[in-house]
Design brief:
The complex is a heterodimer. Chain A is built from 21 helices and 48 strands. In chain A, strands 8, 9, 12, 13, 14, 15 and 27 form a seven-stranded mixed β-sheet that branches. A seven-stranded mixed β-sheet of chain A has the order 17-23-18-19-20-21-22. In chain B, the strands form two sheets. In chain B, strands 3-4-5-6 form a four-stranded antiparallel β-sheet. In chain B, strands 1-2 form a two-stranded antiparallel sheet. Classes of the chains: A alpha+beta, B alpha+beta.
Chain lengths: 979, 95
Amino acid sequence: MTQHNRFSKGGQIDRTTPQQFVFDGKSYEGYAGDTLASALLANGVRLMGRSFKYHRPRGVLTAGSEEPNALVELREGNRQEPNTRATTAELYDGLTAKSQNRLGSLRFDLLAINDRLSNFFTAGFYYKTFMWPAAFWEKLYEPIIRHAAGLGSLSLKDDPDVYDKGFLHCDLLIIGAGPAGLAAALTAGRAGADVIIADEDFRMGGRLNSETFVLGDDSGADWAAASVGELQNLPNVRVMPRTTIIGAFDHGIYGAVERISDHLKTPEAGKPRQILWRIYSQRTILAAGATERPIAFENNDRPGIMLASALRTYANRFSVTADKRVAIFTNNDDGHRTARDLHAKGVKIAAVVDIRPDIPRSTDYEVLQGEVIDTKGRLGLTFVDVQLADGSTRVLDCGALGVSGGWNPNVHMTCHQRGRPQWNDTLAAFVPGADLPQGMTVAGAAKGDLSTAGALEGGRAAALATLDLKTTNVDLPVAEDAPIALKPFWYVEGCSRAWLDPQNDVTVKDVKLSHQEGFRSVEHLKRYTTLGMATDQGKTSNMGGLAIMAELAGKSIPDVGTTIFRPPYTPTAIGAFGGRHRGQDFHPKRLTPSHQWATEQGAVFVEVGNWLRAQWFPRDGETTWRESVDREVLATRASVGVCDVTTLGKVDVQGTDAADFLNKIYCNGFAKLAVGKTRYGLMLREDGIAMDDGTAARLAEDHFVVTTTTANALPVYRHMEFVRQCLFPDMDVQLISTTEAWAQYAVAGPNSRSVLEKIVDQDISNDAFPFMACANITVCGGLRARLFRISFSGELAFEIAVPTAYGDALMRRIMDVGAEHDITPYGTEALGVMRIEKGHAAGNELNGTTTAQNLGMGRMVSKKKDSIGSILSEREGLNMADDLRQIGIKPVDPDALVPAGAHLMKMDGPVDAAHDQGYVTSACYSPNLGHAIALGFLKNGSERLGERMRLVSPLTQIETEVEIVSAHFIDPEGGRLRA
Amino acid sequence: MIIEHPLLGPRDAAEFTYMGDAALIDRPDWQSQTAAQDFYEYGYLRDNPAGWHKELWFHEAGDRSWLVVTRNTVTHEISTVELARDVARARGRSK
């Protein structure tokens, strides 16, 4: 019989919409409005999973997001989602789910052997057991543990769905749409405030949907539905069901995950699966309700044993009973409600067991004063053993046991900004403390007002106070207002295998053991036993552990304190945090103006500082990147090449103090640089370490153009603004980044001048435009441009810049007019080879540890002026006799490899870190020299040219004999530059 | 966090880059007899208080102002936000 545990009527389910689903390969039917858990219970399925450590059979414990046990793998294939709580997974037609953490079937889990070995797997078993012998860890223990660990499994396939991010602003954010949240929303919404009300459930109303209380003339559920309907019609209220507020952050900012499509088999076209919202709120009312807590007793983890309030939720909201015969174990009046509700629906109440002497009697069922001391039933509860107050015992025949140990207000969000909750003796629970996040008020059960009337009143009052309203336009219905009647009771005396944290298999015995072994701080208890470290973060288990710890230490629970509550409130998919930033869109992509042209040439691109730069341009017949790069280098040095250098950072510096400003940021002098000249500049950090290098071109007395390396464009600009605004605030100087305003191309090689002469509108002969000249010019008959005679390659070279919009056209024109010289486009690899051949330092050399001295530019640091880094560059530690110096390296065997990162050692003596002489920073094959070459740093290197050394790379097992040479492999006199 | 920019109003902290102690404004005199020691202290000895702290924030994704933000590092409460240039001038910096 299907759905044999479903009542014939009632509940907030749609019986006209049956929905088929599959759990562990077996088909079942439920209704729209069900969760996976309620639908499984309706079909008599109590066994839903296995515990983490002992692989004990487990069923559902709760009816909400605090569920520790009923975790499943939801969906199949690319959309498979592990560790999904069956209690919050909304049922849809065609849903498939699998139980997890089992070897074999759920009923016959082979790893259930762990349960028999439980003495071995007590608290701290990792630390105690796997310490010795040491070699066993890697070979034996770890592989076994890795295999057995974890709950659900990943599909390892790409998630095909989209996750979005969004921003919302409101006057008032209301967290939770139970009686308190709805009363607050009605009050604020009718008063015209911009309100967001969010609730994690797909049906708003909180406990109103789970109870049989009436509100005025309506059922609680109907009142909630009517209220939600009104709110949805208010234009100033945004009603967000299926939305979990996951954290309270600084200054009224909240994170929220809205599950747009999780209740559908596949998202609707164009819709994301989830949206991660950042909500900026002026004020917040936390109305997150309370969570019932269990009582620990021997074997309290069998399927069928659940929270009393969850039994009510299943019965009243989902019209389901967990079994035909139910018992209750409670320490408070609230537990009796479950017996009354279930009895009214025709469920046989085996007995209500209450630990208190003065207990409410019933004429409908038996009420016993006593304690549950053990349970039976391998894959699900069959019997409950009760010890009565007079010492006698009773056996109750039942398939479900509802347990109520009282309610814990959901204070989590009040603690995300380091707030500490306060102890409340009446509730025997923590309630929000005084140190709430900015703008937050707490109302309803989250504050400790557990009655419905109290929650409604509290919600309305909070909204009035928050919005500073004098009168209200919300009349609250008459509602249940029972007082709290509870005797604190955490665990049954003498129990040991009594579960506190069922997911992580932490028992009363484990907590006692950790205390015995000296773990006295609650944070230590948590980490040693893993209590509260499961996916539910101890929502049902932490209080029990604290209470036992307090008792053992002879302290009160508030003296022991709680562990710190941290976001997220419930597990959140990594995909939601990633949003659309994945794959190609992981970060923004910057394209140069001639990107399209480079693509047409078949360029291979590389990412540099978010830019895509052409790395090389393969031609037909070239099978390796080296062939292309060698050809580009040789062609450039033989005739002419062109390279897109748009990505270099460009900063326009203007003002009467522009030259003085450059004197501050560069270690070398700029005051005397003539207009129309360019100079290499080295920038130091204030600690004397090289930061970046580039050129500064003086276009006018009060106008320079500074270039930075591509990767450092942003930090250098930031640094320049710091110097300008914070250190020299009265300098007349203005900065603006023009990196994206100008397209810039390097034209290099002996024929570069004759190519450019066909484009530029002025004389660029060596006399008219010598090495290091710069000018504002025009090209192609009037287009404004900038020309710099600078060279990174070591050849006669120019860099020409035009406004971005003309970059593509200029590149095509250069290629056209250069055709007669067989002009060759080259990429960043050829650029790199040529600068290594020339001995120019780049990012590998300016690596954040090197000084001007190391780079062989020590004399550039002017002592006659104040510049950033000049004082600390004189520190003794940076000026040792055997300091590293930049040198060139070539292998003795011309066929040998010289890997970057390899270290230099003396020809004799040990090869170890203590005898390290230096290291290789940049290496390449030089097609001009026909062997590998490298740049590197060597102790006292400038005095060691000609020395033979061993180059070792223990990681790649390379050892090569090399010769130390000048870093200038090509044209050391610089004749080509000046040609 | 939300930073109340003196020119632009409330802005999300995500628009800013953080640099740390606003004492970095007080760069020593390079010609002082004790310049080496002064710069060493300036560069390496900084306060890292649990509590109120003046610190430098750069509105990188905004108007490129350097700001001095007085922030409680324990609670993230922000009491004042000033343009760093005004603070620098008030502390006697010029050219």
